[in-house]
């Protein structure tokens, strides 16, 4: 409208255009109308909206279990020929109305329907998570799963909290008929045991339709029989749990074989045998607590450390200690050096590079302690004490501390610290600062230091027993106290690996996991060395060798040895500049 008014006023009423030829006048008016109209249109800031409609077929996912259990009780001809043809027919018929995507699954999820029933495990959780990750933003019409319902890894599919909104349909495979069979249903055991200790197994033996039959349960190791028991099958649906106690006689990862003698008529003897592996540790970490006099702290610390089965704790009074400090991985000196004793034991521990933890108290001889030059000292000791609380140092990075500790440690009963000026060397690691009332000071309550490459801790007060007791009164357990104190003990007792050639791997892999190694090589200045030739040779229990060569990364070396047959392996690694053997 604005363009019409403007053009009319300019070319109909303006006398300056009267002399123009009518055709020229008409053309000029037309151009003016178009120009003004376009400008006016854009000044109104029009919103241009385009709508595109794309029609997409619903997606149907067809996932087939490719695990070994599918064929254990089934007709191999059916599963190798008939069933794949039936799946292909189902896929073809669905493709008329749907976009069909196919997978096989077991321990992994793979594209396509390449069925060989070779997977050792079945993980429904992994399948459901993978389908959700790929198709949560698509028009997923349905998920069809073909399986026998047996899962060996991940969550029970019945209780899996899947986020899929599409319906799930199943193709039931296998056979629900109870065949005549004897099997080891389950073996319950600890993964760790200690050399010289006894450890338990619980073996669940099951049998179907074998009432009245006899079998023998055996536990063997390296061909030697460690346990046997004759079992009488007393019913057609038989289950008995047999407890077994074994002794850990050899260190390292030990293989134990549990087996049942076969019974005539069993559908399979594959499940009559099971191998387990238990890591036999040579010894616990040994901790000595040596005190000047009896004190309630001693019992609290012993119970805290002993709550972890990896530690063995011995308690001594200074005057009664007759052992060698080098027999221990960590020595806790409670109120030592004392005013009535000497520094002989402490000097021996420092000389033999034994990690130590010192706990101050009213019996501590600070003149002698200051002479040890451990990074923390006390000046102007007059025998008095001051009641302080603890405050966690937010900048402490040596190990992780529970976030709850800082809030609760402020509420725990006060610690009695010697009254005086605490001198702390720069660079020490403060885990706890002293807090007086609402004020957090810079005075250390618990420090971690290092002297001549040996870790040393200093707790500048006494009364830790109150903390542990109050933790139980407050929470109903000692977990928070034990956690931070055990981590401190572990930090002090652990020795830093300063070798120039280091090889790392897990000591236990599942049968379907790939065997991964990493290696590092350093010069005398601990700078990474590249372009080194590093190899590893794995040897199984039969003496067969598997040689491999590492590939180089940015600062480390890596080896993927793939999936190896189940068994117990040792390995030897070799670097052109250095040799190292591991078992």
In short:
The protein has 583 residues and is α+β, with helices and mostly antiparallel strands.
Describe the protein in words:
The protein folds into five domains: 2-43; 59-172, Rossmann fold (3-Layer(aba) Sandwich), CATH 3.40.50.410; 181-281, Immunoglobulins (Immunoglobulin-like); 287-493, Class I glutamine amidotransferase (GATase) domain (Rossmann fold); 501-582, Macroglobulin (MG2) domain (Immunoglobulin-like). The protein is α+β, with helices and mostly antiparallel strands and 583 residues long. α1 (2-11) runs antiparallel to α2 (22-43). The protein is built from eleven helices and 32 strands. The strands form seven sheets. Strands 15-14-16-17-24-23-22-19-20 form a nine-stranded mixed sheet, with helices on both faces. The protein has a five-stranded mixed sheet with strand order 3-2-1-4-5. Helix content is 21%, strand content 36%.
Q: Architecture of the largest domain in CATH?
A: 3-Layer(aba) Sandwich
**Can you identify the CATH class of the largest domain?**
Alpha Beta
Percent helix range: 10-25%
- Overall geometry comes to flat
Look at the helices and sheets and give the structural class. Answer: alpha+beta
What's the CATH H-level superfamily name of the largest domain? Class I glutamine amidotransferase (GATase) domain
Number of helices: 11
Largest sheet: 9 strands, mixed
Instruction: Report the end-to-end length measured between terminal Cα atoms.
Output: 93 Å
Q: What proportion strand?
A: 35-45%
């Amino acid at each position: 409208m604005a363009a019409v008014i403007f053009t009319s006023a300019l070319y109909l009423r303006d006398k300056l255009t009267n002399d123009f030829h009518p055709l020229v006048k008409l053309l000029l008016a037309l151009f003016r109308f178009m120009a003004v109209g376009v400008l006016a249109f854009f000044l109104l800031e029009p919103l241009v909206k385009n709508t595109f409609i794309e029609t997409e077929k619903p997606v149907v996912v067809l996932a087939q279990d490719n695990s070994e259990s599918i064929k254990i009780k089934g007709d191999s001809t059916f599963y190798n020929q008939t069933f794949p043809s039936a799946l292909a027919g189902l896929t073809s018929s669905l493709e008329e109305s749907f976009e069909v995507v196919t997978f096989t699954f077991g321990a992994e999820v793979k594209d396509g329907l390449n069925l060989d029933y070779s997977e050792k495990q079945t993980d429904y959780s992994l399948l459901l998570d993978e389908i959700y990750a790929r198709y949560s933003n698509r028009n997923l019409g349905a998920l069809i799963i073909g399986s026998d319902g047996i899962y060996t890894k991940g969550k029970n599919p019945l209780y899996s909290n899947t986020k899929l909104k599409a319906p799930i349909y199943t193709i039931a495979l296998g056979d629900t008929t109870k065949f005549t069979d004897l099997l080891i249903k389950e073996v319950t055991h600890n993964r760790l045991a200690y050399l010289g200790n006894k450890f338990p197994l619980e073996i669940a033996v099951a049998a179907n339709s074998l009432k009245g039959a006899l079998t023998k349960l055996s536990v063997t190791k390296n061909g030697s029989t460690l346990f046997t028991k004759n079992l009488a099958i007393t019913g057609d649906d038989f289950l008995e749990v047999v407890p077994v106690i074994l002794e850990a006689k050899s260190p390292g990862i030990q293989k134990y074989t549990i087996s049942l003698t076969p019974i005539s008529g069993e559908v399979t003897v594959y499940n009559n045998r099971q191998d387990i592996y238990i890591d036999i540790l040579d010894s616990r970490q040994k901790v000595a607590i040596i005190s000047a006099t009896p004190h309630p702290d001693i019992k609290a610390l012993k119970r805290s450390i002993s709550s972890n089965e990896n530690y063995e704790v011995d308690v001594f009074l200074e005057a009664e200690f007759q052992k060698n400090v080098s027999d221990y991985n960590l020595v806790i000196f409670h109120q030592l050096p004392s005013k009535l004793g000497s520094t002989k034991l402490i000097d021996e521990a420092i000389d033999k590079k034994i990690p130590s933890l010192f706990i101050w108290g009213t019996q501590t001889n600070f003149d002698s302690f200051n002479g040890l030059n451990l990074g923390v000292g006390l000046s102007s000791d007059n025998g008095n004490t001051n009641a302080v609380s603890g405050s966690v140092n937010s900048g402490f990075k040596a190990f992780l501390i529970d976030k709850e500790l800082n809030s609760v440690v402020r509420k725990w009963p006060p610690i009695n610290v010697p009254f005086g000026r605490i001198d702390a060397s720069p660079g020490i690691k403060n885990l706890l600062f002293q807090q007086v009332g609402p004020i957090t000071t810079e005075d250390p309550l618990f420090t971690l230091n290092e002297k001549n490459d040996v870790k040393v801790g200093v707790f500048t007060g006494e009364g830790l027993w109150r903390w542990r007791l109050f933790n139980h009164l407050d929470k109903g357990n000692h977990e928070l106290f034990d956690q931070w104190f055990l981590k401190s003990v572990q930090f002090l007792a652990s020795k830093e690996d300063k070798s120039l050639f280091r090889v790392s791997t897990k000591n236990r892999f599942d049968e379907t996991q790939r065997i991964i190694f990493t290696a590092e090589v350093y010069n005398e200045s601990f700078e990474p060395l590249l372009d080194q030739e590093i190899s590893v040779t794995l040897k199984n229990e039969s003496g067969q060798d598997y040689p491999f060569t590492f590939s180089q990364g940015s600062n480390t070396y890596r080896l993927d040895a793939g999936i190896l047959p189940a068994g117990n392996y040792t390995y030897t690694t070799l670097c052109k500049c250095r040799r190292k053997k591991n078992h």
